[in-house]
Every structure is written in C-alpha cells, then in structure tokens.
Amino acid sequence: MKKILSISLLAVFGLSLASCDKFLEVEPLDQVSDESTIFDKTSAETAVRGAYRGLANLNYSGGFQNTILQSGADVVSVNVGLTDLSVTNYNLRADIPFLQTYWNNNYNTINRANHIIEKVPLVEDTKLTTDLRNQLIGEAYFIRAVSYFDLVRLFGGVQLFLTPTRTVADKIGLARSSTQETYDQVLADLNKAESLLPATVVRNRATKYTVFALRARVNLYLKRYEAVESDVNAVLANDGYKLIKPFALAGGTAESILELSYTVNNINPGFTLWSGNRQLSPTANLHNLLNDPLVGGGRKLLSVKTGANFFGKIFPLNSSPNYVLRTAELFLIRAEARALKSTPDLDGALADLNKVRDRSDLSALPTATKDELLLAIENERRVEFALEPHRWFDLVRTGRAPAVLNLQDSNKYIFPIPANEIATNPILAQNPGY
Amino acid sequence: MRKKLLAWAWVLTMPVWLIAQTEAVINATVSGIVLDADTKEPIVGASVQIKGTTNGGTTDVNGEFFLKTGQKLPFTLVVGYLGYEKKEVLVENNTVRILLQADQNVLDELIVVGYGKQDKKSLVGTVAKINPRDIKQIPVASFDAQLQGLAAGVQINTFSGLPGEGVRVQVRGASSINSSNEPLYVIDGLFVNNNTLSTINLGSKFTSPLADFNPADIETIEVLKDASAVAIYGSRGANGVILVTTKRGSYESTKTKYSLNITQGWQRADANRIWELTTGPEHALLVNEAYINSGIENPNQTKYSYDTRPFQDNETGNIDPFATAKRGDPEDQQTYDRLNKVFRTAQVKNVDLNVQGGSKNIRYYLSAGYTKQEAILRPADFERLSFKFNFDTRLSDKVTFGSSNGVYRSFRQQVRGGAGQEAGHLLSALHHPTYFPFTLPDGTFSRGSIYESIDYLIDVNTVDISTISTRYLGNHFLEINILPNLSFKSSIGLDYNNYNEGEYFNDKTQIGGVLNPGGYKNEVLTNFSVLVNEQTLSYKKSLSKRHNFSALIGNTLQKNQLDVVSATGSGFPNNSFQQISAASIRTSAQSASASTLASFFGRVNYNFNEKYYLEGTFRADGSSKFGANNRWGYFPGLGAAWRIKNESFLRNVKSVSELKLRVSAGIAGNQNGISDFAALGLWNGSAAYPDNVTGGDKPGTAPAQLANPDLKWEKTTTYNVGLDLGLFKDRLFAEFNAYYKYTTDALLYLPIPGATGYTSVLSNAGEVSNKGIELTLTATPVKTQNFEWTTSFNVARNINRAEKLVSPITFEAREYIRTQEGAQLGSYWLYKQLYVDPQTGDAVFDDVDKDGKLTAADRQLLGNLIPDYFGGITNRFTFKGFDLSVLLTYQYGNEVYNFNRFILEGGGTRDASRSILKSQLDRWQKPGDITDVPRLTFFGNNYTIEQNSRFLEDASFIRVKAVTFGYELPRSLTQRFKIDKLRFYAQGTNLWIFTKYTGADPESSGSALQNRQGLDTATPPQPVGLQFGANITF
Fold first, then answer.
1. Over the stretch B456-496, which tens digit does the pLDDT of each residue have?
2. Are the beta carbons of B814 and A80 separated by less than 8 Å?
3. Range scoring the smallest mean pLDDT among A360-369, A385-394, B314-323, B568-577
4. Tens digits of residue pLDDT in B972-1019
5. How far apart are CA B432 and CA B946, in angstroms?
6. Angstroms from B910 CA to nearest CA on chain A
7. Do B687 and A2 touch (CB under 8 A)?
8. Which end of chain B has fewer beta carbons closer than 10 Å to its terminal beta carbon, N or C?
C-alpha cells in the first residue's frame, strides 16, 4: 500500500515535471512576435499601412497641432491648459512632456519605415511584383522623409537612424547630425522615393506627385527656389490636382495632394481639438480676417461665431481627413519661390497668388513690389491655412517672427531637445538657450 | 485576582455539586456547556475528557458537548482548549456548565502560515495575526481597507471615498519600481486575483477585486512578512503574503448556530475639510487682476491688459458669463455651488446571516450577505450579494474531503473621481468656475471648458457608468492520512471573475453629443480565471520527546487566463435606445492574455526540546512570462529561533512569560504586475490604414514592444531579526523586528531614448533596498472581574533607497515623481519655490545650477510619498456587557502634491477654465506684502511652473479611524427568548483627523497607479460615518 502510494506520488510529480516545459509555453494571440512580421506580400503591405497609421496618429497628433497652432498666435487655447502659457509666452523648458511625445512619435514612425526599408527588399514571394515592392519601399522612404522633416523643423538637427531598432544599444552613442545633414537625409529619402513610386494619383498615400509636392516645400525651407518651381510644375501639370472653387474642405477632392485618413476606429486626433472639449479656438483677430469679405472670402466657413465664442471648423467628423499637402499650398509655394529666386518672376508669383485668392472669391491683387508681394503671400497663407499648422513654421523660416510674434530670441525658433532623451542618451547636446 | 476568579467559578458551579451529591447514577450521560469565564462566550472545539479514560469529545459551535459513559457519577472531566488554562471539574450531575479561564499565554494561539498552521511559540517566521474583531469596525467594501493600523509594517491607504475602489497595501516598503508592490493574497489556500479588471475610464482609479469578498466570512487574517515565512511562496512572496481563512463549522456540534448581523449607517464628507472656493465676484476680481498686472508688466503685447480684462461691462449692460470677453463687472457675478450638488449624505446598509454546524463526520458553514453602500459622491454606489458555503466531510477515518465556495455579485454605480476631463464627476463640480451658471439662457444645462455639466453627471439616466462583477472562488481538497504521521493533500481551485462594464452617455452630454454624436455606449466584458492545482505531502515525527521534526513537500500548477471583448456604439436613433445593436456606428475589440506558473516547494522544521528551532524552506517557480533561458527561479529561506524562556535559567522566572529570539534569511521573487508577454518582441495588429480615400481601413501592423529574451525574476533577499518578549503572564507582550531587504534584478520599464522608436523596455535593471524596524506592543493594563482594558500599539519605520538605476525614471505626464539612484522610490521632482519677493511679488525659485535661468536642470527631489513612520493604536474597554474600542491610525513624514491647489491656485491665469480656491486671495498685491502666493500674472514663472514645490504639502496625520461602542444584553435575559447572544452597537468612522494637509484628505490620490500615488486630484475624501447595528446569535 505504502509502496504503491509513494510510486503514484512520484509519478504525479514526475509527470508534472515532464510536462512543465510545455505548460510554460504561452504565446500571445492578439500580437505577433518580432520574427514573423514582414515575410510575404500581405505582411509587407500591412507593415506599410502601419507606417501610415503612425504618420496619421503619431506625427500629426492633436498635441503637435495644438502647439504649432498656438505658437503661430492666431489660435488660442480655450482652457488655458497647464502648458499653454509656456507655449504662448515662448518659454518652453526641456522637461515639458509634449516635447518628448513629438520626439518619440516621429521616431516611432521612422522605426516602422526602417523595418520596411530593410525587410521588404528581402521578401521572397512571387505575388509581390517588382512594381508593388518598389511602391512599398518608396512609401517607406517618403514616410521617413516626412518624419525627419518634422523633426528638423521642430528641434533642429537630430540623430539619423536608417535601420530598425533591434536592441537599445543600436541607438545609443550616436550624436545629433547638423540641421543641414538632416535636411540632406530628407532630400535623399525623397529622391529615393521618387525613383521607386508610381506616377499615379492616390490622395492618402504617397506617389511620385506627393514626393514632388513635399520636396517643393522642403526646398522652399532651404531657399532652393529653382528646385521648388520644377517640382510644383510637375504636380500641377497633372490634371488630378487643381484648386476647387468655391473654397471647401479638401478631403477626397482634386485639391488634396496628401491627406491622412481616419475612421471611427482610428479617429482623427485633431477632431477633439476643435470639438468636444473645444481646446482650441480661433482668436477674434483671425475670425475677423476669415470673415472679412476682402480677406477671407470663401474661407469664412473655417471660423464660426456662436454666442460670444469662435469655433474652428476644420474637422467636421472624427473620421475627417487631415491635410498635409494641398494644391493651394503648391501655388503659394511657387509664388514665393518665383518672387524670391535669383531672377524674380513677380508676374508669375502674382498670378499664382491670385489663383488662390480667386478661388475664395477675392479680387485679384494689382502688380506690386517684391516685398509687397511677399507680405501678401504671407497674409494669404495666414488665412488659407488658418487652422493648419503652418504659420509658426512660416514666420520662423521667413525671419518674420520678431516682427509678427514679437519674438526676438532666435534660440526659441526651435524647441529644446526633451530632457529625458538627454538623460537616457547623454551624448545628445541641448539646443542653445534651454 | 486569579484566586478571586477561581472562587467565583467555584461559587457558580457550587449548585451543580450540591445537587449531584444527592443522587449517583450508573451509566451516566453527561452534557454541558463550556464558556469563557470572562466573556461567557461559548468555547467552540474545547476538548472534554473523562479523567483516567479515553472517553471524550469536543464542544460544538455553541460550546456544548454530550458524552455517554459507563462511569459512575461523580467523576472528573478534564476540559481544555488552546489559549485557556486546563481545568479539572468534578461532575456529580449529568448537566454541567464549565467556565474556562483564558490562559493569558497567547503563545498557544494557532497561526496560519503557508501550507499549514503553527502555534505562536514555535513560530520562526514573522507573521502578524489580525484579530477579526478589529477589522469589522470599518464599513468599507473590501477587507484590505479595514486592515489600516492593525499590523506593524503593513501600510494601507484608501485613495478615495468611493466604496470598492483600489487601496494601497504595502508590506515593509516598496521593493519594486515597476513591477507590483502588492502582496500576494491567498484565501483558503487559493491564490486570488487582486489586480483590477477595470478597463473603462474611472479617472485613473481602479476597482478592487478584493471588494467582491464579504469580510463577514473571515475567521482570521495573517500577514507573512519575513523570508522564513514567505519563501514558501517563492516568486510571489517578496511583497509579503496575506493569508485569509474563512469560517468553517465544527464536527460533533449538538446545535446549529445561527447568527445575524444588521447594520445601518450614514456617511458624509467632513464639512470642515471640503475645499473652499472663491465666490463669483472674487473669481472675477482675481482674473481681472491677472490681466491688469500682465498689461503693466508687458505693454508690448495686447492680449492681457486692463482693456482686455474679461470681467467688465459689455454693450448690453447685462452680465454674460458665457462670453470670452466682457462678461460684466466682477461685483455683478453670481456664485453657483456645484460641490453641494455632487456631495450627499450617503446610506450604508449591511445584513449578514450565517449558519454554522456539523455532525460526527460533517461540518459546514453557510452564509449569505448583502451590502449596499452609497458613496458620498453622487451617484456612485456599491452593492454586493455574497454566498459562502464551506463544507468538510470525513469520508473515512483516513480520508477527508473539504470544499470552500464563495459566489459573489458586486454591482457598482461608478463615477470618474480623480483625473480626467469630459466626465470627471468631482472635477466638474470642484474645478468648474463658481461664476459659471448651472444653465444656459435657453434653460439647458451648461458646461464650461473641459467639464461636463454636473447636472448631467449626477443623473444616471444621462450618464450611466456601471459594472457588475460576478465571481466564484472555490477550493476543493482531498486529504489522506496515509500514516499517523504522514498525510497527502491534493487540491484544485478556481477563481473565476466575469466583469461586465458599461458606460453610457446620452446625446446631451459632451461624450455622447459632441465627441460621439447621437449618444455613446461602451460595453466591456472581461473574463478572468485563475486555475490552481496543488499537491502536498506532510510528515511529522517526534523522537524521544526532544527532537521534533516536520516536513512538507508539494507542487503547484497555475494558469491565469484573461479574455476581454468590448464594443462601442454611437449614433443612436434617440435616447431610448441604449443597446449597441441600435447604434449606427459600431466598433469592437478583443484581446486575450494568459500566463502559467509551475512550482515545487518544500519545508523542513526541527526543534530541540522546544528551545531551538530551525526552519528551512525552498521553492522553485517556472513562469511563462520569462524567456526560456531564465524561466525557472529558485527561492530558499532559512529561519532559526531560540526560545530563551525554556532555558533553565529563565524557566522559573515568573515575571518573564516569554522570551524568544528569531533570525531568518531568504530570497523571494516577484513577477506580479508585469505583462504576460513582457519578454517578447511584439508587433501590434491594430495599425490599420486605407489603401485609397474610399477604401476604408485595411489591416496594418506596427512594432509595439522591444524584445528582452534575458528577462528574469526580480529577487529580494531578506534578513530579519525578531524578539518576542512576554511579561507577567503575557499581560504585556512585545514583538520587535528589524529587517533588511535587498532587491536585485528589479523588473522595470527602463526608459530608453525615444529615438529607438520605443519609450521603454522591461529590464532587470535596478536594485532597491528597504530596511526597517517594527514594534508591536499589546498590554492589558487593567483586568478585573467587570472591567478590562486592553491596548495595542504598533509602529513601523521603513527606509527605502534605489541603490542602482541606469537612468532616472519619471512618472506621471508632468513627471512629478521620479525614482533615481541613491534616492527613495517615489520622490517628488520639483522646482523649489524659495519665497515670494516682497518688493516685486515674483516667486523666486532655487536656481540649482546657478545659470540665472530656470531650466529642467533646476528640478530637485523634494519630499516623498512614502511615510517615515506609520502604524496604529487600538484601545478596548469592556465593562460588564459594555464594550468600547477606539482605533487610531497614523502616518508621519510623507508628502502629497496638492494637485487641486496647483490647478485652482493658478493666479487667475486659468480664467474661465478652472475655479479658484479661497487661498488664492492671499496673493501678493503691493510691495511689502509677505506671502508665498505670488503676484497674479500670465508672464514669467509665477504661474507657469507646473512642478512648483509650493503645492507639496506635509501629509502626516493621526486619524480616529474607528470607534465602536457596544452593549451585550445579559445572557440570562436573552436565553428566555432562546437567544444566545444579542449585542447592539454603534460605530463611528473617520471621526476626526489631525493633519497639516490643506486638501480634503491626506490619503487621497488622484491615481491608483503605483508610482503615481501621492498626487491629490479631484478625489472624494474618505467619509465620516456613523452606523448602528445589532448582532444576534441563536
């Protein structure tokens, strides 16, 4: 009896021991492990969509739009949120958390793109045609370019990582690149994307035309005006891109060059900025400009006064698209480039400007001097992109921030590197003045 | 005095003797009752034996026994029970009443330890036993919240006044940074889930899964603290173990015992501690002042100036509180009190009925309980229905089957108390500017800024957030006594929780009207189960009465499984439709997670002559959470005790009744609170994006987690030295412990550069130490026939330090709390406001790096959310049928960041978005003013530094936690109505608090998340309560 018992007991223990290893293997069902991510046509496509989702919900997060719009001084926070005064007083400190958020978000998307750039060329799947493979890789280059462009606009030169992160050690110990080097990388990625992407019209993903449009903007920032013009021309030559009259929100129309898509599952993070909590409101000043028939014209629909308050109307639904590049911007970019290039083309510039004005039912401006024209373009951009995050970057790149924003300290034109980023990677140098 | 009592007992039993002497009977039956000589409570399970024979039995739940004997009367009965002095009674009649004198010696008390019981005198480990009488004083939903102040070294804080919400329970400090610091809970041998299943937005608050259980079913609670006690729980023991034992019946009861307990109480917020807000005119005045000051300070800008001040006459001459500008003069503003709308006098009801009994081979405990607790914050409440059935049967003289079962249903009407925007209940009441009217000119309820209208929030027809938790807890065992010394036990247990959350916002609200037009509904169904199978084999042997051995080996297999399905709907036809299938926009989600644990463990105890004790324990745990290389962890523990009292030189020293020295060392682990798949590199499948503008979302994937295949157990090595001293027959008993805990390979989400594309990676990257001392004193200063006073005092001091940390870790969005090498965990990381310059009115901050600017480098660690000392004092007085007990709890040396004050003392800069506290009126106004509230301005650092030390406050407190006054009717009276016991009582809770803290409650925390505690945001305080009850046993 005793023997039998001890044997059976031993058996119980022994069995559980033997089956232990199997018992301890538990795999997740709603996530997949790293090794099985990009290996065929479908998984390559899903990874690229994931990178776009990063662009749509991380790079263009509500916080990013909030900060840039408030920095541009035409939009205010209704709630006087905790960090809003630091933004509007141009008194940012490196430990303000949203800085880390923008930083992380852009690099998160860059890492997504890097996985695609590295892994999609290695996929062996007959269903993955060369054209599709090129398109997917080209889109990743484009997405990386957008992210580095936003980083350099926000923080100045940053570390350039062109491979996916496998371990933390991969990304420690690399110093910041210069502003120029970062812009060079943006352009290199765009050129690479141009060579890979098809010349088709798709409005919520990158194509050759999207690359031209973004490159025009980048070159405008870099003051390479000749390059700007040719890229703009290349886009506008396509019948798929034109101004829509009367002025209306551009989603899905020929006005739209790149819009980011949202659904009820992945909602537009900008939606709650203007609805819901109504964190943001156009200033009385901006509202009056938009509603002035000689300035805003058709664009008055962007700001509506209800009672004593102003409501910004850019995202009617939480699934409304967000605009990254619009045809109107290309006209205004070309106008500026034509006015500023070594042999100015003031007539061409004026023609571009008046096209945008005409679309909003405004009279054409008469011939003007270069400076008058540049000021007119600046003011046109102010109302055309009233609720899109442009004005802060425009005033900084054109050197108009001291005059318009009363911001004399040029150190404040870029934001501080997030304090925790330096704490975890001490090789990073802080921007001067912070 | 002892003599006196004996004399009394003699007198009481005298009539029995006198009668008995008159007639002697052959073949007698004898029945009787055994009572406590002092309390006259029946003693359950006392042994009654006829002297010189083996004939005997035990008393049942009513203290009664029945014996048949061939002996002739008179004969002598030997009556004994643990904790009572053995007594011999000469029986001359066939009914007897026997009074046992409580043995002052507490050392025979049985203490529940891991996988067994030990008497206190032979205990090697450090275990605190909590008297169940003490825990039932406080009418809160979960038993963990009732433990505050009752056990040395066990820190308990209730974060909010909402019933059934999470509670901080921390044993001997925090040993882990990111992994959980909660102890392990074991109820009737089953590991139970104490991690919340709450997924909906409750304003950073969580429900407590322990609130599902009915405290009335609890027999004892033991807290295992040192390595020797916890090592048997291996990987889960590092934060201490709380063992809960529920009531059971007793074999051979002659009578079934029914017990009914009914209470009714009322609770409200302490009116003296509720926030004081400025009136409408005061608010307006302060905002205008900020505009005017800013205009003078910075004339280059046009935004803030005398001309743009918001409170001034407008064109219409009427006040218009809803306008951005020109709302009317300050003195014309009205004041609207929203706090009054949201707080209420809450009712608390409780009914418990239980039946306890048994026969020769069966014993059972059956109970039903109902609790309904309204919160002082409308409309929250908590309602629980519980059933408990504990059953044991002796299938043969060798085999016993036992079963513990509990079925619970908890309903919670919930609120978002704490942080959060659109629907924060207290936020909407407290932070809404007071000048802002309740209704718009058109008569509909108004809302300001980020808030919901309080009138909508308190109406469950408009906003309905509620959860039903249905839970089964069962553990079933078969025990076989293979040999007299050897027994085998196998058990299987299940903790199953079905947790159904629902949120509904109708179309009048922000969430259901603006953000999700047409009404919004979110329903989440969570199923969580813990399945445990355990085997133990235990052996006991004494050799020549001097060498005593016992040994235990066992194994455990455990599987935890979590499944969550959720659906949301918006765009309902109208507010009558509230089910998601009626919604025009519907989304759904599903997730699942699982983990397994396999363990082998053993323990050996040896003592020589009850003088020298040795205990060795060992556990090996394998966990699915870790990479294959580090899956198994090994956790040994070793303890020794020297019972000096039993040495010859002390044995005869009467005044010293106990002296014992204990030492232990061991290693325990921790893996609680980390994700089930923490070691794997993972990609998410939720990053969908369309292929073109009309196509709709197509599946997308994105990296989500960086792999760490080397992830392994967090290990805590603990050393403990303890001394137990009993004087004067243990009338005075002291237990002293000193410990040192050192945690290596601390599991933490190590912040990594964002440039990696990730924010953190779970790593074994830190070391934390805790050292401390604990002292518990219990005494009976007065004890007479009718009056007794017992007192108990405990204090604990814990010193915590992050010994090694690669880089500092900050917590909370604004990084108020930081853990860095060399500092205490949970330190506040702030800019230090030194003073307000009396000349300029500007706040002057400590410029640590002396660069003349205030930058992130000037932040410093100031204060800590963990107290230096904490504990409790219990005093209990009994006089005849009356009893009075008073529990004081205290905490000293911790700080709380008064986040409400930070927001509501914003210098008028938050204008229409937040209310303003009265304390803002103390601002600097003119040169020479001495104050720490700076000049009102939008510019500079006065009101833009979010992490200002000015709002860090001393949160030390002494609290009159519970006062109970009761009266038990004389038994002689109640017996006429066949009632064994009838007691009426009144209880007061949180009656008084002494603290310097200016918020409503120094224990409040806006968030229940570990590492984010200590920020007080819009959290309802613990209520002041009064309740009345009756306890009937028959």
1. 999 999 999 999 999 999 999 999 998 888 999 999 999 99
2. no
3. B314-323
4. 888 888 888 899 999 999 999 999 999 999 998 887 777 778 888 888
5. 20
6. 5
7. no
8. N
- Helical (H) or strand (E) element with A116: helix A97-119
pLDDT digits (tens, 9 = 90+) for A198-214: 999 999 999 999 999 99
Q: How far apart are CA B943 and CA B907, in angstroms?
A: 6
Asked whether the beta carbons of B955 and B997 are under 8 A apart, the reply is: yes
Sequence-ordered list of residues with C-beta below 8 angstroms from that of A227, at least 6 positions apart, any chain? A215, A216, A219
Query: A33 CB contacts (<8 Å, ≥6 apart)?
Result: A27, B680, B681, B682, B683, B707
Chain B partners of A204 at a C-beta cutoff of 8 Å?
690, 692-693
Quick one: tokens of B992?
């008084």
Complex ipTM, two decimals? Answer: 0.91
B317: left (phi over 0), alpha (psi -120 to 50) or beta: left
Fill in the amino acid letter for A98.
Answer: F
Distance, first Cα to last Cα, chain A: 81
CA-based max dimension of chain B: 114
Q: What amino acid is encoded at A333 in this protein?
A: I
Calculate how close chain A gets to B814, using CA atoms only, in Å.
Answer: 6
C-beta atoms surrounding B307 within 10 Å: 11
Q: What share of chain A is helix, strand, coil (3-state, %, to 5)?
A: 55, 5, 40
Give just the sign of the alpha carbon dihedral B6, B12, B14, B16: negative
Residue B944 to residue A91, Cβ atoms within 8 A? yes
> What is the C-alpha separation between B282 and B644, in angstroms, rounded?
70
- Distance between B32 CA and the closest CA of chain A, angstroms: 42
Q: Look at the alpha carbons of A200, A202, A203, A206 in this order and tell me if their dihedral is positive or negative.
A: negative
- Angle of helix A346-359 relative to helix A327-340, nearest 10 degrees, comes to 160
Name the pLDDT band for B832 (thresholds 50, 70, 90): very high
Residue of A13, A151, A168, A434 for testing the chain B interface, max B β-carbons within 10 Å:
A168
With beta carbons less than 8 A apart as the criterion, state whether B454 and B436 touch. no
Which structure tokens are listed for B870? 């904490």
B583-607: per-residue pLDDT in tens?
988 888 888 889 999 999 999 989 8
A116-131 average pLDDT score: 94
Instruction: Tell whether omega for the bond before A246 is within 30 degrees of 0, i.e. cis.
Output: yes
Return d(Cα A137, Cα A131) in angstroms, integer: 10
The H or E element containing residue A416 is none
Does residue B305 contact residue B289 with C-beta atoms inside 8 Å?
no
With contacts defined as CB-CB under 8 Å, which chain A residues touch B693?
202-204, 251-252, 256, 259, 261, 321
3-state secondary structure at position B262: strand
Nearest Cα to B189, choosing from B493, B480, B401? B493
Residue with tokens 């911790």: B894
DSSP B823-866: S-TTEEEEB-EEEE-TTT--EEE--TT-SSS--GGG-EEEEESS
* Confidence category of residue B8, pLDDT binned at 50, 70, 90: very low
Q: Which amino acid is at B231?
A: A
Residue from B906, B798, B951 nearest B278 by CA: B906
CA of B488: which chain A residue's CA is closest? A9
Round the CA-based radius of gyration of chain B to a whole number and report it.
32
Nearest residue in B to A420, CA atom: B753
Q: How far is CA A308 from the centre of its chain?
A: 33
**How far off is chain A from B28, nearest CA to CA, in Å?**
42
Please give the full DSSP string across B167-205, using - where no structure is assigned: EEEEESS---SSS--PPEEEETTEE---S----S-SSS-
- Residue B638 pairs in a beta bridge with B616, B665
Residue B874 bridge partners (DSSP): B792, B887
